[in-house]
Amino acid sequence: MAEYGHTTIATWVLPIIETLKPYCSAQEILRCAEIDPKCIEDANQRIPLDNMKKLWEFAEAISGDDCIGLQVTKYVKHTNLHALSYAHLSSSSIRESLLRSARFSEVVTTAMRINIHDEKKQVIVSWKKVDDFIYEPSIHAIDAFMALLIKSIGKICPDVHQHLISINLQRPRPSVLKYHQRMYRCPINFSADSCEIRFKQEFVDRKLASGNNELVSINEQALISYLERLRKSDIVSMTNRVLIDLMPSGDFSQEAVARELAISCRSLHRKLKEKNSSYQIILDKIRKYQAVQYLKQHELPITLIAYKLGFCDTSSFSRSFKKWTGQSPREFRNNCSENVSIEIGID
């Protein structure tokens, strides 16, 4: 099971397979990533993020290309992203398309969010992982998504590169720069604090003659229906989100979670069991992650952290934390202060 149940649309696997055809067979690719071949051509199927991570790692290893994410964009078809590509092509402006991509980003992946904001006549599009996704996303996945956005805009605005201001990437500088330079044709900053694309504001707000509100409406409805089905079936992710929302209130019992999800405790237990999970497993993962983040904030007393995480006393919190990490909360905090690299045992 992927961490916190995060997933990617199954058809996103297809262009990756196509990119790797010169190196090995589709069967070998899917076997190494532990992905079921039956699901990859169905946009209603989802691939756990753990498997996608294995797929990207295999892709770089077999190709020897640390820019493999950019190569994948050559093989992406409109249907690989459900109705999102069609809604983009029908948009009345680039801003409208960007806002729609942000609104429906879960269609592609539940682990990342797109944010759009204006700053000094620039429009900044940034990617950020959701709060409950512990692992860093694959640099190749981010490369592919960001490059695909530029290529998609290029289909309706061929002069897009004239209006790109800069690109920021968190990934390290690749061994060969030419692929990124060809893709963006603007200043690129590697090892940046965030992943973002900066456009000229006037370009983003330009009206597009290709805009078609009727087609937008049809494709948006398809996307809305898709997300409704996804959220109903993704009980692990839904439980996780509700728990995070409820935690500040202090009442995040299984009964409270079930109430928020409008189902009975018995149904919640059954649905989670079907996904090889449980309320306690999800709660422990959230507590473990939150505990580590809180302990890095040295001004927070350990007793307050225990209370925030719903433990009845500091001793209970300490026992659980030591079980998760092999260290007491105080030891962990001291090691952080000394800049010691610590394995916190997420898996």
Describe the model:
Helix content is about 50%, strand content about 10%. It is built from 18 helices and 7 strands. The chain has 3 domains: about 5-225, H-NOX domain; about 235-275; about 280-345, Orthogonal Bundle (Arc Repressor Mutant, subunit A). The protein is α+β, with helices and mostly antiparallel strands. Helix 2 (about 25-35) crosses helix 3 (about 50-65), helix 12 packs across helix 13 (about 255-260) and helix 16 (about 300-310) crosses helix 17 (about 315-325). It is globular and about 60 Å long.
User: Hey, roughly how much beta strand do the residues contain?
Assistant: 5-15%
User: What separation lies between the terminal Cα atoms?
Assistant: 11 Å
Strand order, main sheet: write it out.
3-4-7-5-6
Summed over residues and divided by their number, the pLDDT gives a mean of 88
Share of helix, binned: 40-55%
Spatial extent as radius of gyration:
22 Å
CATH topology of the largest domain: H-NOX domain
Q: Give the SSE order as H and E letters.
A: EHHEHHHHHEEHEHEEHHHHHHHHH
Q: Label the CATH architecture of the largest domain.
A: Alpha-Beta Complex
Structural class: alpha+beta
Low-confidence stretches: 339-347
How many separate domains make up the residues? 3
Sheet with most strands:
5 strands, mixed
Shape: globular
Q: For the record, what CATH class of the largest domain applies?
A: Alpha Beta
Task: Specify the number of helices.
Answer: 18
